[in-house]
Design goal:
654 residues, alpha/beta, Alpha-D-Glucose-1,6-Bisphosphate, Chain A, domain 3, 4 domains, six-stranded mixed β-sheet, six-stranded antiparallel β-sheet, 21 helices, 18% strand
Length: 654
Amino acid sequence: MSNLSEVLQAGEAHGGLLAASRANIEKFLAAGPSAPEEASVRELAADGNWEELNNRFFRTLAFGTGGLRGKTIGAAVTAAEKGTPQALGRPEFPCTGTNAMNYYNISRATQGLVAYVKEWATREKLTHRPKICISYDTRFFSREFADLAAKVITELGCDALVFAEPRPTPELSFAVRQTGAAAGINITASHNPPAYNGYKVYFNDGGQVIDPHATGIIEKVNAVESAHYQPLPVAQQGERSSLGPEMDGAYLDRLERVVLDPAVVAEEKDLKIVYSPLHGVGASIVMPLLERLGFDATAVPEQLVPDSRFPTVKSPNPEYAEALTKAMELADKIGADLVMATDPDDDRMGVAVRGGDGKMELLTGNQIGAMLAFYRASRMFELGILNDANKSRGVIIKTYVTTDLQKEVAGHFGLRCVDTLTGFKYNAAKLRQYEEAIPADLRRDYPHLDEDETRRLRLEHSSFLVMGGEESYGYTLSDFARDKDANAAVAAFAEVVAYARSRGMTAVEYLDDIFATLGVHLERGESLVFEGAEGAATIGKLAASYADNPPAEMDGSRVVKMDNFATDIVHDIEGERIPAEAMIIYTLADGRRCAVRPSGTEPKIKYYIFGVEKPATGRKFTPDETAAARRRVGQSIDRLWDWLHADALRRAAA
């Protein structure tokens, strides 16, 4: 230890090792790491790999409101981490470091969560031992992290309900509500690169934690200084049990009810669908669901195989065209009209549809969401679910950085549109409020009521979700799962395409008809990536510069409004105050808008650009006018991104 301390001291003295990194390393070593962990630090220090040590130790991985996310495999894998060769080339041990996803941080996070849950259970006067559900995806170390979390949970006095196999994120949300659990943990890094993993926390309403629970859990986690703890006596420990086919069946039963008009689906049984889970968990639910609904669905064979490396794609993110390449190739081969792909944890869905020219066309998350919103709103009126008497209770929930076309849909049908911050935890919070607005005596056992009964209660006594969504390919279609749900989105969007076909339209023509009616709304999302300790500083510098030195104009158009969500007091349409967040939205004199925000889960700063052109009041665009408006709006948002990109590089270099 003394020799290693001297090496670390020399590393700091020569300017390679950050002071914060050295302090965290020495604290980590003093807490009694495992042999591979200590050996990894020694190897990196002996090699003088200060950049890697800084990235691993410049901070303790922050337990934020969404949980944890970080690298589980380092850029430089040590000999101790490699250990005994594992399947798919995985290291035997995860990345050592206070700023990494590993056993150290999984233990700390779970200790803190259990401490909070037990205090909450006492305040709520629970008469039974608190339960915590755990799910996990197909990533490296996901199962091991889930098993460790279950061990900590049971040894510290709560019950652990663990999925027997990898399962989708939204099914975890559903399971928390079905089992009456106090909380849930999902081990996943969603669509991040293979080296990453994460730890998402849910509370008893099935939504990701928000305040006051978020702050309470963070305080408990921050108070835990070591991965080590003293287990309770055996008689006071909790039990571990398994969640299996019975939970899948209950979840599938509810997903079937997402389809509004089964007759439309039955009428278009020849609609061919190609589906890909992108090597993740989606096929476990999507394929049985499509079969139940009667769709002709074919999966991409090589992407059905769970593989933590995601070997057939550059990124397992259905937002990117490349991720759908193999599915579109298969669609061309078998003559399919619809391609859908879900990300590794099955909460996001990407889509490609065949246009009138016979070519596959990718849709953006904003376009998918707008089509779902318009279809579901219009059909709910046609089917008698919504009417003039109850339409004021109908609501579309979207984020501030999601297309305003969804707001136009709401206005067109006399519904309410609620904007939230980015993150489905805010969508879930609204759903919890709507449930709690139902009289207590009528909502007993609400999670176990069927769709017809919950719909009746919401329409008579509260607010009824027509559709919720965000631009980054996340959607929710009901309230039985309180997170974005790619399984529900697959069923609902397949119904949209079937309906368009039944009316002699392609999906692209259906979208153009919405544009012609409500205006051409186009958006562009871009990100600048800055990795590691230096990157985090650059992102912080950029975010501060937009607030301290806002642009007076962009791409030749004057900035007429700046909404700074970090400092301004903002209320949503229902009067609820929006929490402070590092996001700024600029509105330009020509009607374009752009939003800038640092990502909460990735080393990125994100840019959202919006443009719109509407028909004159009381008329629709013709097809030619729609096409021309598409070109003009598309060019205008491309120019705005070029300006923003160049400006961002200047700000970062200043």
